[in-house]
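Thread title: Can someone regenerate the structure for this chain?

I was given the following input by a collaborator and told the matching structure tokens would be attached. They weren't. Posting the sequence so someone can regenerate them.
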Amino acid sequence: MSDVVFLAFSALARFWKEADALLKELASQLENPNEVIVLGKMTDCDFSDEDGYGYYYEYKASIKKNRKPIKRPITFHFDCARALSEGSKSSWPHAKHSCLVVGYSPLKDQPWEAEWLRVSAIGSLLDTETWNECKKNQYAGGRLLEWAKYRKSDAWFDKAWTYAVPLSKISTPNDISSNLTQPIMSLLIENDTKALQGSAAIVWPS
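Best answer:
Regenerated them for you:
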């Protein structure tokens, strides 16, 4: 058993290192060249239970709108492992793939909570209430979910939204740009979903 424990914690240590490097690269890309989005202060936590394991980062981001910086929470949830029913074979192609789930809230003091961003083995959000609210509002070819009760206007800057990308698709700075930086900038600054449609983001079940 000791070898299994050693290997597991060694892998976990590598994950934390790679996750930190990924988020540092993302922060650098978002801030350059004009500091349009600055991720700012961060809080983080990890959690595990019978439904899986994940790591959650919440940033108090500063987003320039009409040259004025506005604070909004952006959350990155590493959905590392999820429970599969014994002997079952999920039809969802990413059931055994770790994902990075991005969540943006238009409310300064109400970020996406970690439990709201967890992904189930069938490709839906794990929390039933959150999924029932979000599955009705899908955009960008099913890649983007909106929690409509938090909507302040028709602009994506004023909507609560989330999307997810398999971690296997985020290996290089170019991957980070095409799957994270460009979609986030496109939604918040350009009010457009085109960058997300061209990304490797998962398609949520309808």
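The chain has four helices and eight strands.
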